[in-house]
Amino acid sequence: MAELDIARVGRWMAAHVPGYSGPLSVTKFDVGQSNPTYRLNAASGSYVLRRKPPGTLLKSAHAVDREFRVQKALWGTDVPVPRMIALCEDEDVIGSMFYVMAHVTGRNIDDPSMPDMVAGERGDIVAEMARVLAAIHDVDLTAVGLTDFGPPGSYYQRQLGRWTKQYRASETGPLADMDRLIDRLEAEMPEDDGARTLVHGDYRIDNMLFDTERPTCTAVLDWELSTLGHPLADLAGVIMQWQMPPGPEGRGLAGLDRTALGLPSDAAFVAMYCAHRGIAPPERFGYYVAFAFFRMAAILQGVKKRSLDGNASNPEAGLRLGAYVPRFAALGLDWLER
């Protein structure tokens, strides 16, 4: 495999992974557009390696060290995560920072409409999504050592500044709706209510693994965007994703008969989550969904830029995803009116 030096990985594993024994074979997962991820099969078992992509990267992006830290901290809590094994910060080993974790078996569901399931199964899976999201936001930050995992201050003010800067750095052409969305999000931002929890940053069904027999989550994956912040960001992110068209790329529920499919409405999912946390339904929820559309547009613009620069994990898919940026910007403006 040209982009991963198996011999170097094997030598590093022998020195840093307890109980490791070769020979080693590597298979790249074809999902994900951010940090390339590989399955490692060895005589001692199966592992997963996740690395920063090669090439010039945006500052603070692809933080695999943060992924490693947060998942290691969550091991043994009510939040299911893979067991972290070792972090390599020496970029000379394979050309970029990486970490190795235990391989977790389970179903990866990449379509929230779950076409191969029956109505009751679909409902149980979504109910589990609400339960696990509440568990993430209820993590005792002091107990797990994550009180310093994000900077202080208004989460939304900070995130708007960060993602506006990331978007501008990866801009490939003018987009008036995105400019208007950024301006309105700044002008209409709700006052900071002081809510501060662990947030996943990209919580959706295809970043989870489920037991092969039961509707139980075995692992929440892809913690690259995790930080301390406002829990409504994750909740709004789920609802944002569902507004997209169904299918392998939109991965949404727009236009589908959710009742017939056994899937909850947006409001019902929000109510499930709030019941788990014992909180009231949020006010001005349209703002938070609009923000989720803005942030995803900025992320996809970065994917598009990396594809054009030749640094994307899957350049062809990256360009297709980048084509969604104008739609996300328009939908963000629409949700601000709700």
TrEMBL record:
**Limits of the Aminoglycoside phosphotransferase domain:** 26-249
Pfam families, per the entry = APH
Q: What SUPFAM superfamilies does its record include?
A: Protein kinase-like (PK-like)
InterPro entries registered for this protein in UniProt: ACAD10-like (IPR052898), ACAD10_11_N (IPR041726), Aminoglycoside_PTrfase (IPR002575), Kinase-like_dom_sf (IPR011009)
Q: What GO MF annotations does this protein's record show?
A: kinase activity
Per UniProt, which keywords does this protein have?
Answer: Kinase, Transferase
Q: What is this protein called?
A: Predicted kinase, aminoglycoside phosphotransferase (APT) family
Lineage, highest ranks first: Bacteria, Pseudomonadati, Pseudomonadota, Alphaproteobacteria, Rhodobacterales
